Amino acid sequence: MTEHKILITDGLDESGQAILRASATVDDRSGIPAEDLLKAIPDYSALIVRGRTKVTASVIEAGTRLKVIGRAGVGVDNIDLEAAKARGVTVVNAPVSTSLAVAELTFGLLLALAREFSRADSAMKQGQWLKKELEGIELNGKTLGIVGVGRIGMEVAKRAQAFGMNIVAYDPLVPAEEIQKRGAEPVALDELYDCSDFISLHLPLTVQTRDMVGPLAFSQMKNGVRIVCAARGGIIDEAALLDALNSGRVAGAALDVFASEPPGATELVKHPKVIATPHIGAQTAEAQTRAANDIAAEVLAALQGQSLRWKVT
Asked: Annotated catalytic sites, by residue?
């Protein structure tokens, strides 16, 4: 056993923990409160989190032995990257492990919006037979606008092609010819808003993307558009979305992520045109095993001074 000690604060699949234990001492303190994390972190050379734990500058400052922070998943907006960089702490993630799970959920939400699964199921459980009221629309022949054509956006495009959808996409970081290779027609963002029947968001939460889908964006969208977001809460201006739903500009929204999580029974969550799920994009058995194994290997590589596949900072 080496001198490395690794702290897990949001749980990790046992397969990943087994990889870690072969080379280090591992403490699984899932659900540890923020104040207890501050007290505990000085003893550890590595910290592995998911989305719950906020790795603030204070946590990083207190981690006097901390060498690496691992995010068992994609998004790192809960980690203060600037503080980590300033202290020389490496941050790694597992960006490919959950792509299929999120893409499949996204497409399930697209179908649910088109055919009103939630309303149909709820009515049946209340003994109601709303057959005539539940006239949906088909995906075939509709235009899907994908904002962000990374790994997940590309997988969504593949599934949309199989359903006969026309796919347009916007991604300022991906060249037009590469977007075409990934199965979509590259367009400007305002054009995407204007022509899309469905819009799916696949962006990280950054200073640039926070509230980017706000009043102006909604004003540019086609009347009756349906929106899916299984990326990050905060990309959509939720007050503006609520206004757009109430005005009819947006016919429906399916949200797996929220600006504040859990959001509680907000007006948006309870809205009859909203399908809300509790950030379950990566919650499949397969994705959790992949994420655990990937982040375990990456954290150990960082501790042992080996080359890294997914270094964030």
From this structure: 232, 261, 279
